[in-house]
UniProtKB/TrEMBL annotation:
Pfam families: Peptidase_M55. Zn(2+) 1 binds at residues 8, 10. InterPro entries: DppA_N, Peptidase_M55, Peptidase_M55_sf. The active site is at 117 (nucleophile). It comes from Sorangium cellulosum (Polyangium cellulosum). It comes from the Bacteria. Gene3D superfamilies: Dipeptide transport protein. Zn(2+) 2 binds at residues 8, 60, 105, 145. Transmembrane segments: none annotated. Keywords: Metal-binding, Zinc. GO terms for molecular function: metal ion binding. This is Uncharacterized protein.
Amino acid sequence: MFVLISIDLEGCAGVVHVDQTRRGGGDYERARAWMSREANAAALGAFDAGATRVVVNDSHADMRNLLFEELDPRVEVISGALKPLSMVQGMDAGQPAAAFFVGYHGGAGLRASVLDHTYYGAVVGEIRLRPASGAADDPGLWVDEAAINALVLGEAGVPVALVTGDEAVTAHASERFPGVTTVAVKSSITRYSARSIHPDEACRRIRAAAGEALRGLARVRPYTLPPPIDVAFSLLTTAYADAAELVPGVVRLDARRVSYVAPTAREVLRAVLAITKIAGTVVV
């Protein structure tokens, strides 16, 4: 049984500030160790429940954060950025029975979620999805990284069985992903503060929950939305919208909003990556 683990950093126990998440930051080395240990805990839980293959995809920033020496020697690791499938790279390396999202955080615009952002925090204010065939005045569904990534997996029939992070992201996951198991390792107070459990306790709970999630896989269902999907981006400045409008197929909605109609969930992700990367070129 193949399990794909997508591991981020902002949602790990103890992490509350950008200084902990950026290479060169004063607490980065400690935080990346916590991240590596949480990824390993999820992998160990998967092996405990009968997984025969576990692929861990480093999904934070430059995607070169995991400390290999902190990981079980049975795991495979995907590292390095500019991946076609970004945070769910590895799903095409055989059909995963399930995916785990570990260390995930709230999406851009979510109140009381540590370091909330969606793919590119300096650019994106909010992303919403709605059926392209729906009413024009439908505001759409607010989405975070977990929802976008789950849609790509769900389109391929892969369910998200485990989500760990702060209480905000796990609450949204419980509402959206049928049968998902969650572990909240901290309760966010503001964007830069939280009440966290100890990293050792976080790893203990994650390992137990990973095993539980895999053993209960029969109750889990893939997360899907009917295509085509209209993706609406609220960007933080007009300059970012100016740049995003250069992407073929992008429609300008107003000063700071653009949209794109994607025929598949995978193309939703490609649009998010393309628009945020090109808009990011004008960040000053």
